[in-house]
Amino acid sequence: MERMYSGGLVYDRFPAFSRMSWLFHGCFTRKGGHSEGLYKGLNAGVSSGDDTQVVAANRKAILIESGGEELVTLSQVHGNAVHVHTGPGVVPIEADAVVTDRPGAMLTILTADCQAVVLVDPTKRVVANAHAGWRGSVAGVLAATVSVMEERFGCRPADLLAGIGPSLGPCCAEFTHYKHELPKAFHTHRVGFNHFDFWAISRDQLCHAGLKASHIAAAQLCTRCDAEHYFSYRRNHTTGRLATVIGITSLAPQ
Ligand SMILES: [Zn+2]
């Protein structure tokens, strides 16, 4: 990952993505921003009890850094529905992934331990952002996202690049009830007694959806282990939400 410092904000980028001048992406840390207390820093989530006006100011800072026209957020429900964003000003809808080819639309996934998985088709200039917690992984949200990119935008999975953002690592992803909660296919990524490597699970799922293994990057940064940079639901329960953003910049040359 490349760590960026700009206007008081700190975010990580996937090197393979940052070569595209028409693309903005960033896995924002909690550094910078205006929130206080449990949400200290750049909290981008409105549903965990923080002051909504402060969150709006945090989101504005993210939008300015992105160079886009709007942050497109979802009402995330740990499912596998994929929203195709075609125009501005849409009320957040219930979905866990969003796809667009629209310049200026900055697709935003909010997390505190779950994965945000960004996808880009460098040839067709289509972007996606998916929210994959363990429930979303079980529901197949990544495969559903790749399918929508194929069917609605004509993308070829072998062309896609993917980046798995900072999230709960195998060090901290303990599942006491994994025999009931996680399918057999995940058990190959069991680490030790009852921990799981969800970074590897997502890699598997993306490869199964047709992506090349060499096109998939993972930040390999655990949110629970690093309280300075990340919000973590497992660590703090009441906490903020990290923003991961991807979009085609407004002034992108064709
Ligand atoms: Zn950890």
Question: What keywords describe this structure?
Answer:
CNF1/YfiH-like putative cysteine hydrolases; six-stranded mixed sheet; 14 strands; binds zinc ion
TL;DR?
The protein is of the alpha+beta class and 254 residues long. 22% of the residues lie in helices and 26% in strands.
Blueprint of the fold:
Layout: E1 2-6, E2 9-13, H1 15-18, E3 23-28, H2 52-66, E4 70-72, E5 82-84, E6 97-100, E7 105-111, E8 115-121, E9 126-132, H3 134-139, H4 141-153, E10 161-164, H5 178-181, E11 190-191, E12 195-196, H6 198-208, E13 216-218, H7 233-236, E14 242-248
Parallel strand pairs: 4-7, 5-6, 10-13
Antiparallel strand pairs: 1-2, 2-3, 3-14, 6-9, 7-14, 8-9, 8-10, 11-12
The structure holds zinc ion.
Written description of the protein model:
With 254 residues, the chain is α+β, with helices and mostly antiparallel strands. The protein has a single domain (2-248), classed as CNF1/YfiH-like putative cysteine hydrolases (4-Layer Sandwich). The chain has helices spanning 15-18, 52-66, 134-139, 141-153, 178-181, 198-208, 233-236; strands at 2-6, 9-13, 23-28, 70-72, 82-84, 97-100, 105-111, 115-121, 126-132, 161-164, 190-191, 195-196, 216-218, 242-248. A hairpin with a 3-residue loop joins strand 11 and strand 12 (195-196). The radius of gyration is 17 Å and the shape is globular. The site of zinc ion has 6 residues, from loops.
